[in-house]
Amino acid sequence: MTEPYQTTTRLDHPRVSAALFFPRREPRNAPPAGAVDLDVTAADGRSRLGCRCHVSDSSAPTILFFHGNGETVSDYDGTGSSFTAVGLNFVIASYRGYGWSSGEPSVTAMIQDSGAVFDSVQLWCLAQSFTGPLLVMGRSLGSVSAIDLAYHRSADIKALIIESGFADALPLLESLGCPCRELSITEDECFNNRAKITAIELPTLILHGARDQIIPVAEAEVLQAESGARNKQFQVVPGADHNSLMAVAGSLYFAAIRQFVDGVTGTNTWRQRRRRFKQEGQSHN
């Protein structure tokens, strides 16, 4: 793998940040039942990132999730319980300037902080005696952090999940109003999701809405085609747009993720279910 991500000053230009990030500051709310907050020191050593961990079981797989550019950690309070209900721990990462996290968002900060969050979540899982594998997942802009971690930290990650992600950055940046040509920004200077996923051999699940007009499904098709994983799955949700995939898919969304996780981690297989059934039957005798 290459050295950790380094960006050019052009990607940290204020006009790029204004187009790409939509931070919403809000006070820390009380975590819902079964969830705990995890405060992470950002890569700059000063900013604090307010993350939240929804816990199902210490033996369950843990998904580290990076949300979209207009969301916050607390937006996923209800979603967290849906993940734990299907037997998955769900940790939502934050970005500088979002929710109760301090600092200001930028491309460099987002990428470098993802490593700091990953390290902190690993340590937290160890401190909690979690024994399940760790997966990374990113939605929309969050796919950048998830793909970058899967590229650089593959030895520590069991699988990659991408929801509403993109292969090429320039079309997205330009659609958001970023003057890429004026700032002389090229695709090679951007996130390189397409190039990175080619080198990622981790099992990969890609989810996308068929009616996504912000990031067209063609972007997901490129990610699927370029993925270096032997075990890769691609699911398009009919009728779903960029921000309604989970709502349109409903319970099938969580079932699909759980099924994928089971397949790559070897958990909840029919043999294990049969063994538990026998054990429960013996306990009632």
From TrEMBL:
SUPFAM superfamilies in the record: alpha/beta-Hydrolases
Q: What range(s) does the Serine aminopeptidase S33 domain occupy?
A: 61-165, 196-245
Matches recorded under Gene3D superfamilies? alpha/beta hydrolase (3.40.50.1820)
The protein, known as? Serine aminopeptidase S33 domain-containing protein
Species of the source: Desulfofustis glycolicus DSM 9705
